[in-house]
């Protein structure tokens, strides 16, 4: 028993040392957390729907900007600069891709969907800190207009773009992706990697994308959405939706069919739509939510299982004043979505972060 206690203390010490090395750049402020919490009724999904959702739609720019000021550094700590979901595939001898590799493959898929090459200029609407942007630029050779409202994101993205020697291919555009300064018909394609869910108005967003695309150009992406199995009359479904909305800083999740309607109304021809999880699993991949439930000793699953321990370690570092105040609360708030809302939504079949679409603006060359 004594040796067990010694081992536990040693592991805790090493964990704190690792955290202290990883967290010096974490910049979380208590006022950002307060502003985020004011946008939601975190205790009651139905009261939130009645009293808060309209406010979030009116102040969506403030909501999104503040959310990423609050969580970006923690997202990088957990997921790395490519933070997105992904489908892992087997490689050889019973081994699987690393999660970083599957994220990059998932993002390159969007470049392939657009038929992108070095002669093209693409739009990345909601580029984050540029993990997918750099990946697609390096994979396709295309020039990319990277649109984002968050100045913290763009500053970090600029630094990484230069570090990876890809800065010359990526133009940073600080703008609301519903109202960009890009010229009519100036882009050969637009993609969105898990950023569309922050929009309060899919129809307005699709009209803007349609405007900036050349005739015959394509619009594609992956998005966080409710499936058609979502039942607004089911209180458990409403609870799950609310947890995800609160945890990932969106105005309100909508069904996959809402994007279908918005694309058609904007004038797009829809080529493909699907829950990409189902497609990839049919080809031998692991379902996206395996990280939350698979009993395995792989590094990714082990890391996901240690989220509670990680939160405790951050709390200790916060009490020792080694990380900024509110870091632990911000981390816990993020985990509400990752560990509860997303997992429960996947089990119920009512949520996917992998709604894939491929649409085309009519005109130009025939669709391939």
Please describe what this structure looks like.
With 368 residues, this protein is α/β, with parallel strands linked by helices. It has 15 helices and 9 strands. The chain has helices spanning 2-22, 30-38, 45-51, 53-58, 60-79, 99-113, 131-140, 151-163, 202-212, 235-248, 256-266, 276-281, 299-305, 307-319, 327-348, and strands at 90-92, 95-96, 121-125, 143-148, 170-174, 187-193, 213-226, 269-275, 351-360. The strands form 2 sheets. Strands 5-4-3-6-7-9-8 form a 7-stranded mixed sheet, with helices on both faces. It has a two-stranded antiparallel ribbon with strand order 1-2. Helix 6 (99-113) crosses helix 7 (131-140) and helix 14 runs antiparallel to helix 15 (327-348). It starts with a helix and ends in an 8-residue tail after the last strand. The relative contact order is 0.14. Mean pLDDT is 85; it is low at 4-16 and 299-303.
């Amino acid at each position: 028993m004594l040796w067990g206690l010694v081992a536990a203390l040693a592991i805790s010490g090493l964990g704190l040392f690792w955290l202290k090395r990883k967290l010096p750049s974490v910049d979380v402020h208590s006022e950002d957390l307060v502003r985020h919490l004011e946008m939601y009724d975190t205790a009651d999904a139905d009261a939130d729907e009645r009293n808060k959702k309209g406010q979030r739609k009116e102040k969506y720019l403030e909501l999104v900007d503040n959310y990423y000021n609050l969580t970006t550094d923690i997202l990088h700590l957990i997921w790395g600069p490519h933070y997105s979901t992904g489908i892992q595939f087997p490689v050889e001898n019973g081994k699987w891709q690393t999660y970083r590799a599957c994220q990059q493959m998932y993002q390159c898929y969007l470049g392939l969907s657009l038929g992108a090459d070095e002669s093209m200029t693409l739009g990345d609407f909601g580029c984050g800190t540029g993990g997918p942007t750099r990946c697609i630029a390096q994979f396709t050779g295309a020039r990319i207009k990277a649109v984002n409202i968050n100045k913290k994101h763009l500053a970090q993205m600029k630094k990484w773009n230069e570090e990876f020697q890809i800065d010359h291919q990526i133009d940073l555009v600080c703008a609301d992706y519903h109202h960009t300064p890009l010229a009519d018909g100036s882009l050969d394609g637009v993609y969105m990697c898990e950023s569309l869910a922050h929009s309060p108005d899919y129809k307005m967003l699709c009209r803007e994308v349609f405007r900036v695309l050349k005739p015959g150009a394509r619009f594609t992406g992956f998005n966080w959405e409710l499936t058609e199995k979502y039942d607004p009359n089911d209180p458990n479904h409403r609870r799950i939706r609310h947890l995800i909305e609160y945890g990932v800083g969106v105005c309100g999740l909508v069904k996959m069919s809402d994007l279908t309607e918005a694309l058609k109304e904007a004038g797009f021809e829809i080529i493909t739509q699907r829950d990409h999880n189902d497609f990839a699993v049919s080809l031998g991949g692991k379902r996206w939510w395996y990280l939350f439930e698979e009993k395995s000793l792989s590094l990714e699953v082990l890391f996901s299982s240690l989220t509670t321990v990680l939160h405790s370690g951050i709390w200790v570092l916060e009490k020792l004043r080694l990380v900024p105040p509110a870091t632990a609360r911000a981390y816990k708030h993020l985990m509400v979505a990752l560990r509860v809302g997303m997992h429960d939504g996947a089990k119920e079949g009512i949520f996917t972060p992998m709604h894939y679409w491929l649409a085309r603006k009519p005109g130009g060359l025939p669709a391939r």
